[in-house]
């Protein structure tokens, strides 16, 4: 037992050695510079995933440690330093508390990374919704009415993929998929077998837009086994107002079953609902540019309702969710508000860690001043 403890102590002292920090910091500076510069070309989301949220990345032809690897090494080094090399005395109490605050800050960042979700909730005046759509993740879905009977993250969709939706007799074969699609007129010689509007338009692969929400994700696919009237080639894309529908005959006297094939943003349900009562916007004088806008809403949770107001720089925080006023749409027959919804279980850690670090620094300063006065006395 003592041998095991001695070996663990040796490993702990080695992990606490400052040369680990010495080598980690230059690579952290490099990944910050490369990731920041690449955001202009790749966009914030792709750059974050490639450099800051990866274990390794390739610069030119050289593999280098990514942000997750570096921050993990930094956390292990600081934790080992805290446990094995801290001088556990009153004179060093302030330093120990400050180091503990840094560990809490990194731990909070890890919790945020692995548990946070963001998306948007769009609700019209007089309507109620609790559905949050993801800003970035797309899904290939097949619906029977409102029920999803098949879904697949779009990053797993590939040309040639063949799927058999649950409780159906037909198959779907992906002929073309593009994360960002352009639309052009289909050549007349290629219109055979297509169902409108795919008969007259085709999807073309385009480079991804740095602003991910501007990417129009789509697929061209073929349906087989649905009967002569429904078999054929179709297309659909994100936000397509009328995605393809496949009608399958039921037993005599019953309505046919309608299946909808679509590309959608990933959806999540809030544990409460939001009703938009009124939407108000103020404009800069003499322009149609919004200066401020606010949503008067009603929050309903387990049958209990109460009013709230969300406006610019004044979000609503409830049950671990933060709802920000981010956009609006007043082009239709009634105004719609767009609320950014962020779920972050680690949102309090930056505040807690900052207080701990500040307390540690103040304590360190008080101890030093008291020590000097005592030595002079």
Describe this structure in words.
The chain folds into four domains: 1-85, no CATH class; 88-116 and 344-377; 119-131 and 269-343, no CATH class; 134-267, no CATH class. Helix content is 31%, strand content 38%. The model has no long low-confidence stretch (mean pLDDT 88). Strands 3, 4, 5, 12, 13, 14, 15, 16, 17 and 18 form a ten-stranded antiparallel beta sheet that branches. 16% of the residues are buried. It is globular, with a radius of gyration of 28 Å. With 377 residues, it is α+β, with helices and mostly antiparallel strands. It has helices spanning 2-15, 18-42, 44-52, 67-84, 93-115, 349-376, and strands at 56-59, 62-65, 117-124, 128-144, 147-153, 162-163, 171-178, 181-185, 201-205, 218-224, 232-237, 245-248, 257-283, 290-301, 304-311, 316-318, 321-329, 336-343. It has six helices and 18 strands.
Describe the main β-sheet briefly: 10 strands, antiparallel
Output mean pLDDT: 88
Anisotropy-based shape: globular
- Helix and strand run: HHHEEHHEEEEEEEEEEEEEEEEH
Number of strands: 18
Q: How many distinct folded domains?
A: 4
Q: What's the end-to-end separation, in Å?
A: 49 Å
Classification by helices and strands: alpha+beta
In DSSP terms (H or I, runs of 4 or more residues), the helix count works out at 6
pLDDT under 50 segments (min length 5)?
none
Oligomer: single chain
How much of the residues is beta strand, in percent? 35-45%
